[in-house]
Amino acid sequence: MTPNEINLLPLLSYFEECHEGDLLSFTQWLDKAIYMFHYLPTDSFSETERQNVCHVLMELKEAVLEIHIAQNNCA
């Protein structure tokens, strides 16, 4: 592996072990996390921090859904 490559094997293993390879299951848990994040006490995080965290989780969800769609189109 070159220095610029990222080893995603731990992430792939997580999907397989914790979600049995079901990427939609993972996205459902991301949705729940985003929803629950909005109910934390307002003094826990600033509004900007809250928005940034939700944005990162939504981007992760979108990437996983793109992988899921690409897998289904190849099958």
Q: Give the number of helices.
A: 3
In terms of DSSP E residues, the strand content is under 5%
Helix content: over 70%
Number of domains: 1
The SS-based structural class is mainly alpha
Shape: globular
Measured distance between first and last alpha carbons: 28 Å
Poorly predicted runs of 5 or more residues: none
The biggest beta sheet is recorded as: none
Could you tell me the radius of gyration in angstroms?
Answer: 15 Å
What does this structure look like?
It contains three helices and no strands. It has 75 residues and is an all-alpha fold. It has one domain (15-74). Helix 2 (23-37) runs antiparallel to helix 3 (47-74). The longest helix has 28 residues, at 47-74. The model has no long low-confidence stretch (mean pLDDT 86).
Write a brief structural summary.
The chain is mainly alpha-helical and 75 residues long.
Provide keyphrases for this structure.
single chain; 75 residues; mainly alpha; 72% helix
Task: Give a topology summary.
Elements: H1 9-19, H2 23-37, H3 47-74
